[in-house]
Amino acid sequence: MLNDNLTPKQIASALRVSESSVKRWCDRGDIRTDRTLGGHRRIPLGFLLEFLETTNRRIVDPVSIGLEPLDRQLVRNSTNVREPAATIARFKESLLSGSEAECRKIISSWFTTRGGMSSLADDLLSPTFRSVGALWKDGTIDIYQERLACEICKRIVLELRRLIPEASTTAPLAMGGTPSGDQYQLSTLLTEMVFREQGWKTASLGSNLPFPSLLSAARMHMPRIFWLSVSHVEDEKTFLEAFEDFTKRLPKGIVLVVGGRALTDELRPKMTYSAHCDGMRQLTTLAKGLKTGSLPLAPQI
After folding, report:
1. Distance of alpha carbon 206 from alpha carbon 187, whole angstroms
2. Interatomic CA distance for residues 216 and 239, integer angstroms
3. pLDDT digits over 15-60, tens only?
4. pLDDT tens figures, 192-214
5. CA angle in degrees (0–180, nearest 5) for 228-108-161
6. Which of 97, 148, 189, 248 is most buried, judging by how many CB atoms fall within 10 Å of its CB?
7. 3-state helix/strand/coil string of the chain
8. What are phi and psi of 136, to 5 degrees?
9. Ordered strands of the 34-35 beta sheet
10. Residue ranges for the chain with pLDDT beneath 70
11. In Å, how far from its chain's centre is CA 134?
């Protein structure tokens, strides 16, 4: 389990640099540092994330700072252990009040101790945003609070990205985004993070992209997987027509994976795709299986 107060030695091992370099960065203020009563340097996780973001560095050895290897994360995920409701309530309160520091503490702790990105997405973020969305719809909160909550979570998830080691140069590519009319960026970002955890090279194209643009990206980069995250459909008929044209023109050999709350049981049978995932745990299993070859999924079916 990760200790939120890291030593220079732990950080040096995680970054594969000398301990003296880490101490030097601490002393000159590159890494914000606390001191114990005995004068020893201690670096909270949030300070490490800030340093990684500003220096474009990444964690090389996550075990050194207490992060579990991915295979162990998957074992923990399979138990479907959920955090007490009190923590989710505290997280929602922090989001709605705009307390980014408190949200960072909750998210980073969840990510590092409860099974990685899939648990973070399915067990914390998803139920919280369902609740936040309901509050916005009934007029209890202002729309700016919902949008601010999304922005806070996006920033923190991007910080966590630094804790995931780079994929190998031979790793397969996963690419995707959201279609026109779908402004939700967090879902496609979380999808990207799940693939990264499983050792894929990734490219999230962002949100609100027309299908012809998504097709251009697929043709240019020829990913092994192309994901489509659909949280909102403005007009079902228009969406299905554009989606059908997209799938017909998608290059052969690309596995099309779809997901998102807008893909209802009524809508999905009208679509052609290789796989549908209800949540990030399913996506984690899919990403691992396709990468290792244990799940020989064909392109569009």
Report:
1. 10
2. 18
3. 999 999 999 999 999 999 999 999 999 998 778 877 887 787 877 8
4. 999 998 999 999 999 999 999 99
5. 45
6. 189
7. CCCCEECHHHHHHHHCCCHHHHHHHHHCCCCCCEECCCCCEEEEHHHHHHHHHHHCCCCCCHHHHCCCCHHHHHHHHHCCCCCCHHHHHHHHHHHHHCCHHHHHHHHHHHHHHCCCHHHHHHHHHHHHHHHHHHHHHCCCCCHHHHHHHHHHHHHHHHHHHHHCCCCCCCCCEEEEECECCCCCCHHHHHHHHHHHHCCCEEEECCCCECHHHHHHHHHHHCCCEEEEECCCCCCHHHHHHHHHHHHHHCCCCCEEEEECCCCCCCCHHHCCCCEEECCHHHHHHHHHHHHHCCCCCCCCC
8. -70, -45
9. 5-6, 41-44, 34-35
10. 1-4, 66-84, 113, 115, 294-301
11. 23
56 C-beta neighbours (distance < 10 Å), count: 7
Residue 208 φ/ψ, nearest 5 degrees: 60, 50
